[in-house]
Amino acid sequence: MTEKVVDDLASQIRSGDRRALARAITLVESKRASDARDAEILLTGLLPYTGQAARLGISGAPGAGKSSFIEVFGTHLTNLGHKVAVLAIDPSSQRSGGSILGDKTRMTRLARDPAAFIRPSPAGTTLGGVARRTREAMLLTEAAGFDVIIIETVGVGQSETAVSDMVDVFVLLASPGGGDELQGIKRGAMELADLVLVTKADGDLAAAARRAVSDYRMALHLMRPKYPSIAPEVMAVSAHEGLAIADAWKAMMALHARLTQEGHLQRLRQEQARRWFWNEVQNVLTEMILHDPRSALAAKRIEADVMASRLLPHAAARDLIDTFQRP
To answer: Most exposed of 35, 199, 208, 248 (fewest Cβ within 10 Å)?
Structure first.
């Protein structure tokens, strides 16, 4: 792209052009070196227009009803006048690398909402149930004027730390399975949660949902809180009946306001930026080594030694770095 084309794309994004936003996200997700340079220029120009949105992470085990909740929740927010962007991270096909579930087909009503933007992205090989460029996509949606950004993850089963490292409020959805469901949720994910929502709290499951709320409150009471003076809330919700959807939003915003007032939010985002930086350092170093012909050849040889148990991974990593640094 020429500098003018990148500037035009930035202007279109700032004006709320959804097609331009989609093109920009495709650009930052591209693995081509020329696209990476253009994406960096684009994001640098848009950086002053980011950071004002409420960033929410939504996670939960498969079957917890994440997509159903987000569709009803997102529609509630757009009815309040908000602009909502949903960055939905889907499991990846091992053959094509593409998304499997396709959230636009699961959130048809929200996908048609002119005040909403849904972008499914494949998780690929990135740990934590997020795509590698989810952070950049989040910045682009903020620059486009969306004031609530929702990141929907693949679900509990991978490290949820990656999600917590890019959002202000981390919401964990749980099915009303009581003790069995509680055993299926990792302690790490529970400790990261700012709000636990027990879903499907309607009909025959209403009583089970109430019991699950009690179970989760007891479990959280035994854990060290994420913030010393703020205890996570647990609520029962129903996407089918719209039960407590408004209350869940109020709870999220009350927490967001408190984090802002007490200085936690600024420190949280600074720490997230620091970890993002060091994560990118590791990625860039890996790419530099693998794109250097001599180092790439050495990497294959050293990798074979590791696989054959002839060399420890730590020692192998040092050998590879030494090979790359050698003149």
So the answer is: 35
